[in-house]
Amino acid sequence: MAAGATYEPISTTTLANSTTWEITLSSIPQTYTDLVLVINGKQQTGTTIKLQYNSDTGSNYSVLRLASNNTSVVNENYNNETNQPFALGYANWTYNAILHLMNYSNTTTYKTTLSRSNDVTTKLALLYNGMWRSTAAINSIRIFTDNSSITYFTAGTTFTLYGITAA
Amino acid sequence: MAINRTSKARGKIIDIPSTPTIGAATGGPGSASVAFTAPTIGGPVFSYTALSNPGSITATGTSSPITVSGLTAGTSYTFSVRGNNPSGNGEYSTASNSVVPTVATAFESIATTVVGVGGAASVTFSSIPTTFSHLQIRVYGKVTGNDGYDSTTGLNLRFNGDSTNNYYMHYMYGLNYATPGGGYSGVQNACGVGTLSQYNAGNVAANTFSPNIIDILDYRNTNKTKVVKCLSGDNKNGVGYYRVQLSSGLWNSTSAITSIEVFPNQFNFRQYSHIALYGIKGA
Q1: pTM score of the predicted model
Q2: Cβ(B276)–Cβ(A100) under 8 Å?
Q3: Shortest Cα–Cα distance, A107 to chain B (Å)
Q4: Does the interface predicted TM-score (ipTM) exceed 0.95?
Q5: A3 located within any domain
């Protein structure tokens, strides 16, 4: 078995100020097998972080969510959504969100994700499984805070996109 | 320009090598690949040495290209190459183009199977290298059949061909048809940590595939039992049964893992299922 180094950084965006509530990662190379998006930062107020692929605003997204805090566990599912929630952002403590996007450049199957996020303030741990019902290859990802209650990412928040290539 | 002097070596007089012609250098993770063309005159070449500038880091090989490791990411390097034989070393070539090595990665691809037409009952990764600390298997999969319940199928692992009752699993899940929960699977003959979407159960689309990310920790130790962690999901946009799951598995063996069989609990892997093995290095 031949091994090849992978898990390469594609891009990193660090916000210089606290006036941004959405960013778009565009012109994503089609040369990898999977993508991993890592967000490290804070928001002005806590809201859900969502995404859309290839500027698709149709009702083509669904997500399953499992959340636990120090007292209970809940699961939720959202279907035929116009965007895909994949993490929760918080205001007082820095949070991490990691999104795995599998086989993003294939043009045969729907696109699925696994993501995790957590917050020490609310003692929440979250697990998401998202799906975009499209067979199009993903070439851009729009990431934004819940636009029903716009809140800004704070300065210093980073968005890093990695690519993983299977041998 | 090499000076073709002669000397006695191994009982006969041979020339030292002439100078290779430098080719293209290409940067990699903490390394560079240096290509060159062997000289056509001069003494026989037993080996070649590539030399970095700056750093004077060397690497040796018997043919082009030579990989020079141990370089600093973000630093610009050029390289020269010389030939060597028992009579001595030739002169270094002119410098290559400049390259900037990238950050060395601890995550490497080992092998991948993409299931073709007709499906596959299982995928086996054998002769797994022992040069890593941990393994990760990423599965984007679906099975070829359905059990009539719009349900999901488990994803199993077996290590080193062990099909005896040496496996255990704990899990936590969120479902659409029941409250979230968790449990313990009891003794099993395979480590069923993942989930796979079933094929065309009810009106479930044919192209919904399930993601699974499976970490196998400290796989080559011979002192501890082996533990597995898996994050998986089966999202069907509200149709049928679907779930998101975090599970932990155990193989009750202290043997180093040398092969892994990956297979569905029911049916076969459907075409386009993607099963990839990666290695993670420790410091």
Answers
A1: 0.80
A2: no
A3: 10
A4: no
A5: no
